[in-house]
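Hi U.,

Before I forget, here's the chain from the pilot set. I'm dumping it here mostly so it's searchable later in email.
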Amino acid sequence: MINWGRWQDVLADFLFPAAVCPLCGTPGKYTRSLPWCGACEAARQREAAEEPSRDNPLSGSGIEKPAFQQAIHTAPYLGVTQAAIRQLKYHNGKFLAPRLAELMLEKIRENGEFAACEAVVPVPLTPEKEAQRGYNQSLLLAREIARGLGIPCLPDALCRVEDTLSQTRLNRTERLANVAEAFAPGRADVRGKTLLLTDDVLTTGATAEACSRALLKAGARAVYVVTAAAAGFHRPDSEV
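Structure:
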């Protein structure tokens, strides 16, 4: 079966390569598979390799055992990875999603437990926020990851039923309370399935926890979490 979506990406890269690195402005030719320059990639790898240890994201939240089985990420929410995610979320940087998803796929394949996942579920936005932004960055990542793993993407597995306050300036306890009832099971049948929840940044784990609880309530067997980055090293702008 021909993957027309992938061929469209290849054609777009050939006809319309980016002229500058979107993260630092270095001139060159950049594509969806190589969207930033060599210097930025070297810095990203260095930041990932030198990632400092961090506490359990749910420590101090009052949750002793999270609803999800395990959470992994590609790099700390710093430097190049932070710049790429901010570009993706706030500056129409949809072309960065394939590369970020590729890095997430590498981490998934390094962790054998994630092989049990049968479908990918993105963290949903409210319809109003998605309409304002024009897309859901978590869905863009989820589709690429599902395609890479050869499993379905279930964008309708969750729905966001509350338009919560921004998580940006809330502490861990406040974040958990803010999104505790924000998500509900969607139309997709997840009964008996082991699911891979996908988002851009994990901070306290509040959103991942709330989404996992909703999926388990809908009958999912288990939930694993993968994000492009994990915050907690400084005040982030993430809402996860």
